[in-house]
């Protein structure tokens, strides 16, 4: 029987996608984007911002989290 791997990343992204909540994505070079997650796969996410949908490769992401309260 093979090992069952737990992928925390996919669980978090799926929950965010299902709830449709806003997220803040901090990129490795320091840029920040805010929007709703529309799709994701092994290599990339699609983030819907007020202006457009943006394809972001996961290797370029530093953090993903909820927007600041307030």
Q: Could you characterize what this model shows?
A:
This protein has a domain at 24-70: Roll (SH3 type barrels). The chain contains 1 helix and 5 strands, in the order αβββββ. The chain has one helix at residues 8-19, and strands spanning 22-27, 32-40, 44-48, 53-57, 61-65. The longest helix has 12 residues, at 8-19.
Q: Which class do the helix and strand fractions yield?
A: alpha+beta
Number of strands: 5
Which band does the percent of strand residues land in?
35-45%
The radius of gyration is: 13 Å
Task: Give, in order, the helices and strands.
Answer: HEEEEE
Write down the overall geometry: globular
Mean pLDDT: 92
What topology, given as strand order, has the largest sheet?
4-3-2-1-5
CATH architecture of the domain at 24-70: Roll
Query: Roughly how many Å apart are the termini?
Result: 49 Å
Short description:
By secondary structure, this protein is an alpha+beta fold.
Which helices and strands appear, and what pairs or packs with what?
Blueprint: H1 8-19, E1 22-27, E2 32-40, E3 44-48, E4 53-57, E5 61-65
Antiparallel strand pairs: 1-2, 1-5, 2-3, 3-4
Please supply descriptive tags for the structure shown above.
single chain, 70 residues, alpha+beta, SH3 type barrels, five-stranded antiparallel beta sheet, 1 helix, globular
């Amino acid at each position: 029987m093979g090992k069952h791997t737990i992928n925390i990343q996919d669980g978090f992204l799926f929950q965010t996608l299902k709830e449709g909540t806003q997220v803040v994505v901090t990129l490795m070079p320091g840029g920040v984007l805010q929007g709703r997650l529309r799709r994701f796969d092994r290599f990339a996410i699609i983030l819907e911002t007020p202006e457009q949908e943006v394809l972001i490769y996961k290797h370029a992401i530093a953090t993903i989290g909820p927007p600041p309260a307030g």
